[in-house]
Design a protein that fits this description.
Helix content is 34%, strand content 22%. The chain is an alpha+beta fold and 319 residues long.
Length: 319
C-alpha cells in the first residue's frame, strides 16, 4: 500500500489553505514600493527615492515567550512580538522599516493556529509601517511537540547615509530618555516562567512588545537624536552602552527612578534575586533608550508622549 506525504505527516493541502487565508493579511501591510504579490519564490520591493540609501537588516525570534502562548492558547499577539523585536532593533540606527519576512515552523500544521499567529505578524507590520513581503511555513513531523511551533523574523529598512545614528556625536552631559515598556517584552521568560504561575500571570506575561517605530520617527524629526538602544537580552546593564562607539571614554549613568511595572516586582520576590540581577536580565519598564543633548530632553519627552509612548528622563552620559 502506498504511503503518501500526508501519511508521513506533511499536509500540503493544509499549507495551501493557510496561504489562501494569509493573502489578505499580507496585502493589508502593502507599501507603495512593493512590486510583487504573496506566493512567489521571492518578494520584490523598490527602494524609496533617497540621495544615498543604506540598507539595514535585522533578525530575531520570540524565545520562550512562545511557551506562554502554548500554555494559555493565546496565539494572537506573539506575531506582534516577532515584528517588534526586529523593527525595534532596526530603528536604533535611524532606519525606516521597509519589509518583513517570517519563518513559521511546526510539527503538524494547525491552520487556525497559524493564521492567528500570522494575523499578529501583519498587525505588527501595519504598526511598524513595513510590508509583510513573504515568509515560509515549514511542517516538520517529529521535530516539534504537538501544538507547538517556532518563529523567526527578518526585517529590512533604509536610512540616508548622512542620517545614520551611530553614537559618534554622543558627548558627556547628554541626557538619556527612556520609553516605557509594556512589561517583559520578549526577554527573560526562562526565569519568569520558572518562578511565576503562568495561568495566574497570563495577561502580564503575554502582553505584546511595544513597537517604537512611530515614536523614533517623530524623535528623529524633532530632536538631535545621538544614540538609540533597544532593551532586549542583557537588560539595562548590557544594552544602553551599545549606543556608544567602541573604546569610547564615555559611560552610561542611569537613575533607576522611573515607575516599574508590577510584574517585575512579582518576579523578583518569587526568584529572590537582587536588583543587579533583575537589571541584567529584564528591561525593568524601559523598552528603548534615546540619547539627546541636555537642552532637548524636555522636547524629546514631549515628542515621545505625543507619539503615544510613556517617556522619562532616566540618566545621562558621563565622562
Amino acid at each position: 500500500m502506498p504511503i503518501t506525504y500526508r501519511d508521513a505527516g506533511v499536509d500540503i493541502d493544509a499549507g495551501e489553505r493557510l496561504v489562501a487565508r494569509i493573502g489578505p493579511l499580507a496585502r493589508s501591510t502593502r507599501r507603495k514600493e512593493v512590486l510583487s504579490d504573496l506566493g512567489g519564490f521571492s518578494g520584490l520591493l523598490a527602494l524609496p527615492r533617497m540621495r544615498e540609501p543604506v540598507l539595514c537588516a535585522t533578525t530575531d525570534g520570540v524565545g520562550t515567550k512562545l511557551k506562554v502562548a502554548f500554555e494559555t492558547g493565546r496565539h494572537d499577539t506573539v506575531g506582534i512580538d516577532l515584528v517588534a523585536m526586529c523593527v525595534n532593533d532596526l530603528v536604533t540606527c535611524g532606519a525606516e522599516p521597509l519589509l518583513f519576512l517570517d519563518y513559521f515552523a511546526c510539527g503538524k500544521l494547525d491552520v487556525e493556529q497559524a493564521e492567528r499567529v500570522i494575523a499578529g505578524i501583519a498587525a505588527g507590520c501595519r504598526e511598524a509601517g513595513c510590508a509583510l513581503l513573504g515568509g515560509e511555513t515549514a511542517e516538520m513531523p517529529g521535530l516539534y511537540q504537538e501544538g507547538e511551533y517556532d518563529l523567526a523574523g527578518f526585517a529590512v529598512g533604509v536610512v540616508e547615509r548622512d542620517a545614520i545614528v551611530d553614537g559618534a556625536r554622543i558627548t558627556a552631559g547628554d541626557r538619556l530618555i527612556g520609553l516605557g515598556s509594556s512589561g517583559l517584552h520578549s526577554n527573560g521568560y526562562s526565569l519568569a516562567r520558572r518562578v511565576l504561575p503562568v495561568e495566574r500571570f497570563a495577561d502580564a506575561l503575554i502582553e505584546p512588545t511595544r513597537i517604537y517605530v512611530r515614536a523614533v520617527k517623530a524623535l528623529l524629526s524633532a530632536c538631535d537624536v545621538r544614540g538609540l538602544a533597544h532593551i532586549t537580552g542583557g537588560g539595562l546593564c548590557e544594552n544602553p552602552p551599545r549606543m556608544l562607539r567602541k573604546n569610547s571614554p564615555l559611560r552610561i549613568e542611569l537613575d533607576y527612578e522611573w515607575p516599574v511595572p508590577a510584574v517585575f516586582g512579582e518576579i523578583q520576590r518569587a526568584a529572590g534575586v537582587d536588583d543587579a540581577e533583575m537589571r541584567r536580565v529584564f528591561n525593568m519598564g524601559i523598552g528603548l533608550v534615546v540619547c539627546v543633548p541636555s537642552a532637548q530632553a524636555p522636547l524629546a519627552i514631549e515628542t515621545a508622549r505625543a507619539a503615544g509612548e510613556q517617556a522619562f528622563e532616566i540618566g545621562r552620559i558621563a565622562a
